[in-house]
Design a protein that fits this description.
Elements lengths: L18 H21 L3 H32 L4 H10 L1 H4 L2 H17 L17 H4 L5 H27 L10 H28 L9 H19 L1
Helix pairs in contact: 1-2, 2-3, 2-5, 2-9, 3-7, 5-7, 5-9, 7-8
Length: about 230
């Protein structure tokens, strides 16, 4: 309800929160996944959780900073306002502040969705981060944790596509035909960004873990530059 998924107008009860509140909810979910990894008492769970915390030290503040940057740009905490501004005003879309925010958020997507080129889903402890946290889970609990990860990826992709990168193609009337068309367009967007993520994960050489701070520091720098550019 808080973010534009299929319609570019607010849904009922969408004024209950804002984009910063959504970011805090995502961070809270990640915190409980960390606890889930530690709760197993196995070395792989602790290993994955400790590595994930090291990534979160830079990733989560940068995510909040990106959300703050877009609120400075549209002077509102509601993502629907940002969608309208960027879709209707090319000057705002192509402004340096917005371009920096797109770069910062894209790097964050590679981290938050497990596509940073130090991640791996193969069972080797030198690479395992996200998978290590849930390695000891099975059955319904594993399904719940997997579903939570997919939902987080869905939400972040939706925010990136409909609020930052491609704010067009949403239903403006709410009619059945326009909503179905918006559904087809958003599925095409998901497919496109998914292919880009696969290319990043496949083509780029993997980094040693201690170099994780380099792309995250670059993302943080882009977010800071966006805020500075907006104020100038």
């Amino acid at each position: 309800m808080l973010i534009p998924v299929l319609t570019n107008f607010p849904l009922p009860l969408s004024d209950m929160g804002d984009i910063l509140g959504g970011g805090l909810i995502l961070t809270l979910g990640g915190f409980f996944i960390l606890l889930a990894g530690l709760d197993t008492g196995q070395p792989f769970g602790g290993l994955g959780s400790s590595r994930a915390v090291m990534l979160a030290i830079l990733a989560e503040p940068t995510l909040i900073l990106v959300f703050v940057g877009i609120t400075f740009l549209d002077h509102s905490m509601l993502p629907f306002v940002a969608n309208h501004l960027l879709a209707q005003h090319p000057a705002a879309y192509w402004s340096p502040a917005h371009i920096f925010l797109i770069f910062a958020f894209f790097i964050l997507l590679t981290v938050e969705t497990g596509r940073l080129p130090i991640h791996s889903t193969i069972p080797y402890e030198i690479y395992m981060i996200d998978e290590a946290r849930i390695l000891e889970y099975s059955g319904p609990l594993l399904a719940l944790l997997k579903w939570a990860g997919w939902m987080k990826q869905f939400l972040l992709y939706t925010i990136f596509l409909n609020v930052f990168f491609f704010p067009w193609g949403l239903s403006t009337t709410g009619s059945l035909g326009s909503v179905l068309l918006a559904l087809l367009i958003i599925l095409a967007k998901y497919g496109a960004v998914g292919l880009v993520m696969v290319a990043v994960d496949t083509l780029q050489s993997r980094l040693r873990f201690y170099r994780y701070q380099e792309p995250l520091a670059l993302s943080f720098l882009f977010a800071v530059l966006a805020i500075v550019a907006d104020q100038l």
